[in-house]
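Q: What would this chain look like folded?
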Amino acid sequence: MTTSGLAHSQPGEGLWDFAIDLYRTPGVADACLALQDHHGCDVNVVLFAAWLGAVRGDRVAGAELGELVVGIAAWRDEIVRPLRMVRRTLKSGPLPAPSTATEELRTRIKAVELESERIELLRLEALASNRRPKGDDPAEASLANLTHAVRLFTSGEPGSDCMQLIHAIHSALAEKLARP
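A: My prediction, written as structure tokens:
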């Protein structure tokens, strides 16, 4: 997820605003990108899982989260990931990249990629709207949901490196939840 040029927002204003706000919190982007780049996680799903717990008080079982995520899998795989791959490829090549002209193209693709991620998050939020929040403790629910989200992509129990990344995101979220 890239967020340059977006206005600051407060958690609770919907999934998109929550995701942007949390992602901008120190340490969260690095943790999310490490989960994405080294463990195959979808950053939007990770942020969605945190939102379900922190904002909606909704602790989901792994299978429930998996059912929700099925609704965006094709979009992620056919639209978001290819855009990300093209944007990242333009950073270093092939020729004529990198150049001023290809950097301008990369910037435009970055904006389209961000819009595709916003659409993914809006779809996830719509899918969640069919669920009745359970009133779970936000801190506990978000940690459980984050762990389930990572499990979806790592096909099993997250290793210690994944758990450190989950806890980095959760710690930043817990600080936000503790603020009045």
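The helical segments are 15-23, 28-39, 43-54, 62-90, 100-128, 138-154, 160-178.
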